[in-house]
Structure formats: C-alpha cells, structure tokens
Amino acid sequence: MCAFATGAIAQDSNDARDWVALAIDRVCTDPDMSGLAAQNVLPGSWLLEESQQPATGTPNRVSMRFALPGGAELALQLRLANGTLRQFRASVAVENGQNTDSRFLAIADGSCVVRSAREIRAGKKPWIFLDQLDGDLRTLRWTETLQAPWPPGADPGGVRIGLVDSGLAYDLPVFSDRLARRQDGTPVGYDFWNLDAWPYDGDTSRGAFLPIRHGTAVASIVAREAPDAALVPYRYPRPDMTRMADLVGHAIENGVKILAMPLGSRKASDWEAFASALEGQDILAIVSAGNDGRDIDATPVYPAALNLDNILTVTSADAFGRLAQGSNWGATSVDLMVPAENMDVTDFRGASGVASGSSYAVPRLAALAARLLEREPDLTALDLKGRILDRAVPSPFEQERSVSAGWIPDPEAD
C-alpha cells in the first residue's frame, strides 16, 4: 500500500498513462530491443538498469528501469518462453520523500494488446484506491480500497485480540463496532508495514498493484466465534521483520492478551526480534503451522517452531479429526489440530465465501482463548494455554501423533 499526499496522483496520472502507452507501442512491439535502444525510442527517459533471468543463455524474463522527467521511474518487464514474448508489463512509480510509490501498471499479451491496467489513486487522506481499468487505460472496471479512515465508534470492551496479518478491512460493518479503542475513541491497531495508523488489509509483497487480502477473512472467524472480544488489527512488517518486537510491545502496552498470527516463513532470522520480545511476557501467541504439507519438526516454519512457552501452534483438521490435506504437522512443534476446512468467511469486500487451511485454525483457537479469558480474566498466558490444551483429545484417525496434544473437535463448544 502506498501513501500519497492528497491529490498527488491526479496531476500526474495522465503522464504516467502516456509513458506506459508509449512503452507498449515502441518497446513491446520489438521484444529484442536493448535497454539503450529503448531509451532512444522513449524520448526524455534515461536507462538506469537492465537485467535478464537467467543471467546467461536464453532469458525468460527481461527487466529494464528508466528515469523519467520529474523524478518518476518507468519499469518494463518482458516475460518470454523460448524467446517468444508472452507478456509485457509497464509501470510508473514516483518518488515520495524517501520512498518510491507505484502509480500505474499495464499488462499486455504477447501481441502487445493491453489486457488489464491498474492505477493507484489517492483521495482525501487517508483514502487510497486501486482502480482496475480496461485495455484503453482509461475506462474504469471497478475500484478497490487500499486504505481507509477508521470508522467512528466506542470501545466495545471485552478481551483484546491482536490480529497480526495483512491487515483488516476495518470499515466493514462486521468489524466497525468491534474495534478496541483508546479513551479518545481512536482504534488501537497499527500498520507496522507502512508505519502509519491505518492497517488496512493488503499484503503487497507481490507488488503494490497485486495486494493479497488475507487478514479480513481470518478476522471474520474471530468476530463470529468470539462475539464479545475487542479486535486490534496489525499489518505485519514484511519490509523489516525486526519491527515485530515493536508490534509485541505495542500489543502489551494496549492490553492485548492474545495474538492471532496466521503467518510465517522458513527463515528463523525473520523471527528473532519477535521471539526476544515475546519470551516471558504474559501474552499468548497463537500461530499457524503452515500449509506446505510437511513435517515442521524436520523442516521448520517460524514462528510455529519457536521453543517458547507462550506460543500455541495449531494446524487444520477435517471434521473427523484427520490432518487436512496440505496442512503442516509436527509431533513436537505443532500442539493441536482443529477443524478449519471450508470455513465460512467474509472477505475484504464484505462478500461471503469459504476458506481452508491452518491460517483459519488460528482464529478458531484465538476465539476459544478469548471466551475462556472472559470467564476467567485472571488467567495468565500459560494458564490459558493449559486450559486450551486440556480440551485436546486423541484423534481416531491420527495414530502416528501428527501433533503433540491431539485435536479439539469443536472449539466453539463451551
């Protein structure tokens, strides 16, 4: 998600559109063109970088980056198969202080016909939109929200659950009156990716124009199964995972007792700051085992495999107690299975759908933890973990101990 000053896109959007159209017209149509030759047919541009993958032999991807007048950049990418152009991408980004903000993207096929285009557009702060355009680069198909103001409301009370994910579409009615708030009415959540106050749902690790919307669907399960809990949405800090220490500190400072964390990576170094900040604290982190279809005792996934007392790792089972297809397991690293296949969810648009996997086991346990803590508010994090583990029973279909404690057939049962 990109942060623009109000009105900044409007004055430059036509320039960005024109540069993209020119690149498709003059570079896409000659896919063997070098970067310097492309510079010559894009008057006013200056080649900054040219690369190909693989570095030697016949490339399957060629990338070029050009400086444009006024501090903007044009990025071109040719995707090839056996030397034949299959897809051409052209995008424009503009410097904004210390950052570079993407503005406009067009994707053309191997015949240089534009199949889709996307423009990031700022409204009145903090609104940011992603417009989906037709091949003419102008006709609007639909608009998505990338960032929105907090809805008005009052603190709902209840156990505070920190939702550590790609963010939350907190302006949806299902969440707007469920947000934990400070005394002045401002919600407690924070965007540790962009370092701003609006953690709206969107993992932009694939690119600013292709946000992955994950957090809202996960949070909708918490909202349904823990109706009295207060939600604290966090957008996790993919650009700098050392900020996870700040996230944990923020949660503790604001009375969060449960962290719901349906995310992870294979790099232990990503989670060192998080582990140091969480260790010994009176807060329970409920984390997903992952969905790689493997034993994470042998090939760890983090933070699931961290050896901390106040972490509870969960994976997905079907309704009969069988490990769900594709879900990770581990007789030591994974504590529990809960049914989390074909779960009813609400997505970032407010539309109903279904989702499966260990990510959706996390909110089921987080909701259970919140209900237990509501009844016994003096429970420590370790006591709370113990209460949950006490509910586990052996699965009749998992005789080889896929997980440490067993499964909870119905985490909604009280």
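The record above closes out task 2.4. Task 2.5 opens with a second protein, given below.
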Amino acid sequence: MSRPHLLYTAWSFPPSRAGGVYRALATVNAFAAAGWDVTVLTVPESVFSGSTGTDAALLQEVDGRVRIVRDEPDVPAFQNDLTRWPWLRARQPELYKLIDLRRDLPRFPEPNYGRWRPRLEAVAERIHREHPVDVAIGTANPHVDFIPGWHLNRRFGVRHVMDYRDAWQLDVFSGRRLITATPDVRRWERRLMASADEMWFVNEAIRSWHAAQHPGESEKMHVVANGFDEYGNPLRVPVRDGREQGLVFGYIGTITPKVPLKSLIQGWARARREEPALAGARLDLRGYLGHFGAGEVETQRLVAEAETDGIRYLGPVAKTAISETYRGFDALVLALGTGRYVTSGKVYEYAATGIPVVSVHDPGNAASDVLRGSPSWVPSRSLSVDDVADALAAGARLARDQTPMAREAAQEWAAGYSRTAQLEPRIAALAPR
C-alpha cells in the first residue's frame, strides 16, 4: 500500500522564528512519523532573515523525509532593501501602499498576501500532478495559506483542513470582531469552511466562537491545542540545586506591548521587598523585545530601570536550547495580554517542566483553563500591583518548598499536553479511508 501524501502550506516554517513555526514544525514531523509523505509549501528563507528573524537550528529539526518547496510571494512588506524599491514607494509610501492593494484584494481579501493566491494554486496543482495529494492542510495566518487545500478540493476532490493558529475575524484580546473582517472576508471564510473536512483551533474558547458564527460547520471543528515540543532534551527538568541561595524566576517569550510588563515589574519589586522567600531572588527575562527583533522604546526603558530590583534581560534563547534554560529556573512567570481567547503556546511548555508557574494575566484568559488543576500553578487574582505581588510571593514559597516528588507529579499532570498527544487523534481521523 502506498504512503498517503500530505501537502502542508505554512508561511512561517523553519528557519523562521515567528511564533507559529513550532506548530507547523511539529505537525509535519508528526505526519511523517505516522507514515505519510509530506510536502511543505512555504516562502524563501530570505523572507525571514529580512523581517521576523531566523533560528537556523530549527531547520535541523525538520524530519529528513519532509520535502520543502519554497515559493516567492513577492510581498513588499518583507522587501527591506531600499535600493530596490520603485520610485513611488520610496517617495510616497502611503500612496504606493494604497495602489499596491489592487494586487491583493481582487484575488483574496488579505492585504499584502492576497497576491500570492495564483502562485499558490499553480504550485499546489503542480505538486499534486507530480505526487497525488491525499490531504492538504493550511495553517494561518496569513489566511491565504488555506487556498492550496481549497483549490485542490475544488479541482480534484482532495480533502483539506483549515488550521487556525489565531482567528481571521476575531480579535482574541478584545473579543470583538476585527475591523479587517470585511464582507469579502466573511464570504471567503464561509466558502472555505463549507468545503473543508476539518477546522482546527488552539483552544475551546476560539472554537466555540467560530461554531456560533458557522453553526452548520460546527461538527467539523476541533481543538488541537498547541502543546509542548521537546527537541532532543526533555522538558521534565529537576529541582535546581542551590535555590536556597536565592530563587531564580524566569520569563520566556516575546515581550510585546500586550504583555503586562509594568504590572509585573511593579509587583515584583513590592513582593521582593516584603516576602522573605524572595530575599536575594532575581527575575530573568528571555525572549525578543517585539515581534520584529527591534525592541519598543518603552519596553526597553522599563526593563533597564528594573535592573535595580533584580530583573535582568538576557535576550532570546534558541528553541533547541530551551531545556537547559529551564534547568536554571525555580519558578516561571506567565505574563500574557488580556483576552478571553488568549492561550499562548508557552503555557504548555511551562506546564511540562513541572516548575511552579505564576500567572500574571487576566484570570479570564484561556490560559487559565489550561493550567487549572495543575499542582504547580499560582494564579494572580488580577493585574493590580498588590495581586501580582501576592501571586509572586506565593509562587516563591511554592518554589522554595517544592520537592522532587511534587515536581514529578506536576510533570505527569501536564503530559497530556504534548504536541504529539494533541495531533495523534486528528492524524488518525485523516488516514486514507
């Protein structure tokens, strides 16, 4: 019996360091491990090196059986060599951008990315003719990634899956419909969902919202949580030796304006003054300042001023070195933007370590649903400075007293959130009939 063939379309794929890359990497590797031939349709590496940045080590984590096809999307937003800009773009960028939208919106209702649709269709069809595709999965955003599956379904009856890492119409922070959710976007989403075999969402809150918007398609909607990945070294780290000399708290993740950094810093300073378990403690921040490698000025200022309170910014850490980084922490800080639909992929990785996790986010965030029941979770009642300080103090006491047995119990609790455990049921459901 021949091996089934998956076509997987993803803008963010190794060596990109953008957040969605880990879900894409884990998915294609899981299908390859399950006996599928896998072809990935993505963009050239130069797109990432000139914008969101790269992590070369991630490319080595792609299963060697996976074939990667890179196609140039010709998106101006990622063309940063000014010497190659047209005169109009250099002299009147706003006018150029307005005119340039005509290359996108008539093809697909997504600024910057809509123009990629014709090439995506052509490349997907070529791949299918060379090696017939059994299932096509597109992971968004951008949402034009859904096009190859829809096109192959329409032309050849290929089953396709829409994997939402976020949402096309929903602002996951405010809970309101995005201003970009135009009538064309709504029509296209209905059209794509009608032909899809499955739609995947990262948490139940986002799935439920879409089910309410598209009740006729709700039975095809599934939660496939981001889960945690392990690259070589396990995330089940032991209790750190030397914590009695001073606890080390850690935050790992991109620090964007959505992160409640000011509340965290002020709450940390108060807790460190008042809680004996925090005597001599420090908080290490690891990650990029902003999505595009250039830190926001206000974020940089806050971090610099916090150094006197034992807060250090140590820069990003490669995903392949993440286990060793966690070994140096006694407690973790989960600081997230406010929003009922916000989970963050980092929550699963944090849970997998078994290290005490202090939540510094709105209690209504979907991340609370993930951690509820964990023996190592300490939630903040709110984002007020007093409540954040209380949570950090409680987290310090838990970290100081956590035994190896308690650490193992927390790790066992989190085991079901491995990326593999999340993907296995869906891979089985998509197996050739």
